Every structure is written in C-alpha cells, then in structure tokens.
Amino acid sequence: MKRSSLLFIVFVATAIEIEAQIPNRGFETWTTSGNCMVPQGWACMNDWMGSTENCYGMSRSDDHFPVSVGAFSIRIENNVSVLPDPGAAGLIWTGDSTGLGTDDPAFPVIGHPTSLCGYYKFLPQNGDSMDIHFAFYKNGEQVVGGRMISTDTVSEWTYFKIPVSYPDYPDVDSARIMISAFYADNFLIHGNSVLYIDNLRLDTLTSSIDEYHTQKNRFSFYPNPANRVVSLDLSKVINDDVILEVYNLFGVKVMTEKLKPGPVEMDFANLHNGVYLMYLKNPDISEVHKLIINR
User: Fold this and answer.
1) To 5 degrees, how large is the angle CA 89–CA 44–CA 59?
2) Would you give the end-to-end CA distance of the chain in angstroms?
3) Which long-range contacts (CB under 8 A, 24 or more apart) does 80-87 make?
4) Strands 141-150, 154-163: parallel, antiparallel or unpaired by DSSP?
5) Are 116 and 197 in a shared domain?
6) Which of 14, 57, 145, 272 is the most buried (most CB within 10 A)?
7) R_g over Cα of the chain
8) Is residue 212 domain-resident?
9) Residue 2 counted as domain residue
C-alpha cells in the first residue's frame, strides 16, 4: 500500500475514533421506561420519576440535525409548573442515575481531545441559561474540562465547539458530559426553557499527519475488512504485554484481551457486522485503528 493511502486511512480512522467515544452521541438509541423514553448511555431526570408520572424533562425528538444523519435528537425541557419535583428539571449526563449529575468519569477516552462539539437549539424563558460542560479524567481524578453557558435564543440548529480550558493537559483515560436547560451550578430554573442537542463529538487537533503517522504506526493488521480472523503484527512492541480493547461506535467496550508481543491471530466471531475501534495500549504505546467486520 502506498504511504499516502496509509496516511489517509489513519486520518479517517482517527476521525471515527474521536466521534465514537461519546455514548449514543446522536441520541439514536432509546429505551422505554414507564410513560417516558430514556436515551441509552445517558442518565436524566426521567430516571428519578415514577412509571406513572406525566412530567418528563427529556424526550426523543424527530427534529434533528444534520438532516442526513440519524433520525432523532434529544429535547431537554424545564417545567416550572411542577417544580420542585426533580423530574421537572431539564438535565442529562453521561453514565447512570446512581448520582444526580455525578462527577465520576462515565466513558473511556482515547487520544487527546481538545474540544466538545455538536449541534444545538435553545429557546430560553425568563433568563434561563443553557449549560453544557465536560471533564476529562486520569485514574479517576479530573484533569481538565470545558464549559459553554448562554442565555441567547438560538431558534435554528447551530454548531458549537467548546475548547478545553488548556490544551496541553497530560494524557487522560475517561470523561463525562453534563447538559441542562438551566444554569446547573445553582439549580435555579426560571422558565420552561427548551434545549435540543444532537450529534456530539470530541475533536482532536494534530500538528501534522506525518507526526500522527509516526506515533501510530507501531503495529499492523490484516485483512480489513475482515470476516472473522484478523492477524496482528506486534513485532515492534518489546517487553510488555499489550492490552487490546475493542469498542463499537456507541463507545461501548465489547472485547478485552491481553496479547504477547509478536504475531497474533484474533478471532472476532462474536462481533456483528459493522465498524469497530481497536485500542492497543501498554506503558509505551497507545494506538487506535478502525476495524470493519463484514461477513
């Protein structure tokens, strides 16, 4: 394969890697809970309500963006008429509902993201502020984060990009995201403000493709697309074992293996057709490559 083609594949794989890490980032997958629906991979105030309640701050919306991507978005709404009932607060966060907007890391992060991006619409009432913030962690300790707070009315789908507070942070391994239709720090809700969110992603900046290629070309594998068995060449890895983690495009880890340096054959018979991310790491390397299963 020509080097230019390899660079292009690595670059595309990187883009897919970064987009895939946020669970259910396009809010396409939902489950039914009582009288309401809940987005998979996210906790929300709906989780705190009884199955017969009629007030739910989160709902699945057919109004989504870009129009050509997916079919749904999430609609986050305050309902001041029934406050202080917690279900009336428009608030979601990655993870589960064991804690109200927990500060714990919720999903793995690969690479060095420098921003959180996505699309939104906001229809505020009585001075409510929309609030989107995120944090990156290393070994359970928060390292860096970013935040967007706004009272402006945005009636059409609009792109947003929230940079991290400082880009030269040390490597991280996990993250969380919290989104609300009010200012989350004081939990004061003034009106029935509505916030739509769709197609979130983490964005990574690299100084050059050549630099990225040099850092990421420590192993190779074939075939790709693969039917079942994939041959990995880990001959450039010395001493330490390598941990292989495989993630689907919802950011869910579907496989973990410990590999010895050298040639290895992996059987992916348990994976369904689709695109996956192979994350290989040890104390010396951290690499991600796209794997396509096609039977």
Assistant:
1) 80
2) 23
3) 80/189, 80/190, 80/191, 80/192, 81/192, 82/55, 83/189, 85/55, 86/45, 86/48, 86/49, 87/45, 87/46, 87/48, 87/49, 87/53, 87/55, 87/56, 87/57
4) unpaired
5) yes
6) 57
7) 21
8) no
9) no
Burial class (CB in 10 A: 0-12, 13-18, 19+), 118: buried
- Please give the Cα distance from 183 to 3 (Å, whole number): 49
Q: Is 80 among the domain residues? A: yes
Q: What is the CATH number of the domain that holds 46?
A: 2.60.120.890
Is the model's pLDDT at 152 over the cut of 90? yes
Q: Which of 147, 179, 203 is the last residue in one of the domains? A: 203
pLDDT tens digits along 187-198: 788 889 999 999
Q: What domain range is 97 assigned to?
A: 13-203
242 vs 279: CA distance, rounded Å: 10
User: In this predicted model, what pLDDT tens digit does every residue of 34-77 receive, in sequence order?
Assistant: 667 888 889 887 666 555 555 567 889 999 988 878 889 999 99
Query: What's the pLDDT tens digit per position in 101-144?
Result: 567 888 888 778 889 999 999 999 999 999 999 999 988 899 99
Instruction: Specify if 210 maps to a domain.
Output: no
